[in-house]
């Protein structure tokens, strides 16, 4: 039987705290101090071409191609010598990801948020005191090094340390290198460990940041103004979704978290802000799946004197600009498939796609009802267009590899959309699909206040009483009476766009902190 003292010796956390105490005994703050003039590792990697081989007579010899795995750099130097390697002095810091060596030298791999870089620590180069400090380093510790940037005999870019710095002792044990932090829920709950130790996670979220910056830049270039609307609403409008409900104590009134950004942005259009957008969180009290999180990021934008065709052009530009920003080309993997984002994107009508997928004319009501029964869809007390759309969702959407704009929806399921002048049964709306996933939704916006009021009053048969679209926003109708210009409006799910462009199959892999059940104790 192992006694308590032996357990302590076997517990790596105890060993880490012992090293922490030894660092303190050396007069070093184990949780670090300011570290000025730091070089990012990514910048150091980019400066690899500044490493030179200089012969004794002062001439520089171009370094070989280090991507050649057969290269023997030691032999190359001998063949091109006598001389010495030179390189810039750099100061780097990061987390220790790998640690090897013994005797009078160590090799570390340091990681910051721009990349990984090897550090060579030789006793003769850093001195005995610093070398003894290096013996107290653990995987996961945050440390720094200053020294010459150069290459080892195998050609690996390396900082040959002359000074060492200790930033922070990691007191927990890092995930095992090969098994890693693999449990999806644990990765999401412990996102800090996921980011720190799992390869590629930081890059995904850095790419997310680049995509968001790109969207803002595209819209700025198009003359749009970014605004901030309220997240607490008295009426949840602008979408058909169930809201989260809350209560304001001082005013003793119920409120909901916003489910969309639309109606307040349109109020701004009425006021004269002709190109306006908001990118922010919305909240829908619905289920969780690989494509849904109750709290997610959307962008909605409105362009005066545009229409849904203007929004198709803008959507395409937003996506293409984002791809250009993060790189990787227009043919991109998503799981085991390739999505070709080469513009222009395909455009097809709702009706033609319905007929192609089902073999029936969507205007044939009897055939639609017959197909619904075959698909075992509940048709009782439902408007026929609702039934039609349920068939479309089941039979058509998953087949849309895209990117494709599905245009011209049944008007009765689009209460905020302008009808086609030559066919009032059709709404000027599109949804954009990629691999069966809806990415964007856009309208030629309805700006007729009387028609809007009628549509708010008239609910489709079979619609859930708790559906937010059933609630009348009287102030919004009043705002329309002050004259909103004809406009195009667009909404894009940012999380889904990031999923598609970074090859992540779950929305929870592109949201830093998705909603999770409370952790069991």
Automatic annotation (TrEMBL):
Q: Name one GO molecular function term.
A: magnesium ion binding
The keyword RNA-binding belongs to this UniProt entry's keyword annotation: no
Q: Which cofactor does it need?
A: Mg(2+)
Question: What does the Swiss-Prot or TrEMBL cofactor note state?
Answer: Binds 3 Mg(2+) ions per subunit.
User: Main localisation, per the record?
Assistant: cytoplasm
Does the keyword Oxidoreductase belong to this entry?
A: no
Q: Where in the cell is it found?
A: Cytoplasm
Chain residues that bind Mg(2+) 2: 438
What are the residue boundaries of the Aminoacyl-transfer RNA synthetases class-II family profile domain, all occurrences included? Answer: 208-518
UniProt-listed GO biological process terms? lysyl-tRNA aminoacylation
Q: Which residues bind Mg(2+) 1 per the record?
A: 431, 438
Which reactions appear under catalytic activity for this entry?
Answer: tRNA(Lys) + L-lysine + ATP = L-lysyl-tRNA(Lys) + AMP + diphosphate
Under which EC number(s) is this enzyme classified? 6.1.1.6
Q: Specify the domain of life of the species encoding this protein.
A: Bacteria
Top-level enzyme category = ligase
The family database entries (HAMAP family) matched by this protein are listed as:
Lys_tRNA_synth_class2
- Give the family per the record: Belongs to the class-II aminoacyl-tRNA synthetase family.
- What is the recorded name of this protein? Lysine--tRNA ligase
Organism expressing this protein natively: Rubripirellula amarantea
Q: Taxonomic classification, please?
A: Bacteria, Pseudomonadati, Planctomycetota, Planctomycetia, Pirellulales
| Gene that this sequence comes from | lysS
């Amino acid at each position: 039987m192992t006694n308590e003292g032996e357990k302590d010796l076997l517990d790596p956390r105890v060993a880490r705290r012992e090293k922490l105490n030894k660092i303190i005994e050396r007069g070093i703050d184990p949780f670090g101090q300011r570290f000025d003039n730091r070089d990012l590792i990514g910048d150091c990697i980019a400066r690899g071409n500044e490493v030179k081989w200089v012969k004794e007579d002062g001439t520089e010899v171009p370094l070989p191609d280090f991507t050649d795995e057969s290269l023997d750099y030691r032999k190359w130097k001998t063949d091109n010598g006598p001389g010495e390697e030179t390189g810039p002095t750099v100061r780097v810091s990061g987390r220790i990801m790998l640690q090897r060596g013994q005797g009078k030298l160590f090799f570390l791999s340091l990681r910051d948020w721009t990349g990984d870089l090897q550090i060579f620590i030789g006793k003769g180069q850093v001195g005995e005191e610093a070398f003894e400090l290096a013996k107290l380093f653990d995987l996961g510790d945050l440390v720094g090094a200053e020294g010459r940037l150069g290459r080892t005999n195998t050609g690996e870019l390396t900082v040959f340390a002359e000074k060492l710095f200790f930033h922070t002792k990691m007191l927990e044990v890092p995930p095992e290198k090969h098994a890693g932090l693999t449990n999806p829920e644990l990765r999401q709950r412990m996102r800090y460990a996921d980011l720190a130790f799992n390869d590629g996670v930081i890059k995904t979220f850095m790419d997310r940041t680049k995509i968001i910056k790109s969207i803002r830049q595209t819209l700025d270039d198009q003359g749009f103004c970014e605004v901030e609307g309220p997240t607490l609403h008295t009426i949840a409008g602008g979408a058909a979704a169930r809201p989260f409900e809350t209560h304001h104590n001082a005013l003793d009134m119920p409120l909901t978290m916003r489910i969309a950004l639309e109606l307040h942005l349109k109020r701004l259009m009425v006021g004269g802000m002709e190109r306006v957008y908001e990118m922010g969180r919305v909240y829908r009290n619905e289920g969780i799946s690989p494509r849904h999180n109750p709290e997610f990021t959307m962008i909605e934008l409105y362009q005066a004197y545009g229409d849904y065709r203007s929004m198709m052009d803008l959507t395409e530009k937003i996506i293409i600009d984002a791809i250009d920003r993060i790189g990787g080309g227009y043919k991109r993997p998503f799981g085991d498939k390739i999505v070709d984002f080469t513009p222009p994107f395909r455009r097809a009508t709702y009706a033609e796609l319905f007929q192609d997928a089902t073999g029936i004319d969507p205007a044939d009501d009897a055939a639609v009802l017959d197909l619904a029964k075959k698909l075992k869809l509940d048709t009782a007390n439902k408007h026929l267009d609702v039934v039609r759309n349920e068939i479309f969702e089941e039979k058509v959407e998953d087949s849309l590899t895209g990117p494709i704009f599905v245009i011209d929806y049944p008007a009765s399921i689009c209460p905020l959309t302008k009808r086609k002048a030559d066919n009032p049964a059709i709404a000027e709306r599109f949804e954009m699909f990629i691999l069966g996933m809806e990415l964007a939704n856009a309208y030629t916006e309805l700006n007729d206040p009387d028609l809007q009021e009628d549509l708010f009053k008239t609910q489709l048969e079979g619609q859930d009483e708790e559906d937010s679209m059933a609630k009348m926003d009287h102030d919004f109708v009043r705002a329309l009476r002050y004259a909103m210009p004809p406009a195009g409006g667009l909404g894009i799910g940012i999380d889904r766009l990031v999923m598609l462009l970074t090859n992540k199959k779950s929305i929870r892999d592109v949201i830093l902190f998705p909603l999770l059940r409370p952790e069991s104790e």
